[in-house]
Amino acid sequence: MMGSTGCSEVLAEVWLFLDRECDPSRRAVLEQHLDECAPCLAEYGIDEKLKALLARKCGGDVAPSGLKERLRTQIRSAVLEQAEVHVESGPDGSTVSVRATRIERRG
Predict the structure, then answer these.
(1) Fewest CB within a 10 Å sphere: which of 10, 43, 54, 72?
(2) What secondary structure letter does DSSP report for 62?
């Protein structure tokens, strides 16, 4: 675990990071973790390539109004559910809690 941000938490938020949808302070925390954690950086790279591929293959078509936001919401929900992460937004900002621990073996 890098600092106070765990791998599961970072990977659950990687699409927010890629889409530049998190606030600057949270982005800095995620970026620091990615700089220091090779497995998370590798996963981030896969997601970044997937996003670029989707943009390249679907970039010229005009999607129906609201489709992009619905897809983003569904993807975010699926990623958070898979990682067992719960995000709550309130007047004081967002709170993220992780209910599962990811164990990695390094050989």
Answers:
(1) 54
(2) P
- In tens, the pLDDT along 27-77 reads 898 888 888 888 888 887 888 887 777 777 776 666 677 887 888 888 877
Task: Provide the sign of the torsion angle of the four alpha carbons 13, 14, 15, 20, taken in this order.
Answer: positive
Residue 7 main-chain phi, psi, to 5 deg: -60, -45
**End-to-end CA gap in the chain:** 17
Beta strands per DSSP E along 1-107: 85-90, 93-98
Q: Which of 45, 26, 42, 38 is nearest to 2 (CA)?
A: 38
89: left (phi over 0), alpha (psi -120 to 50) or beta: beta
CA distance 91 to 46: 34
Give the pLDDT of residue 61: 66
| CA–CA dist 28, 10 (Å, integer) | 12
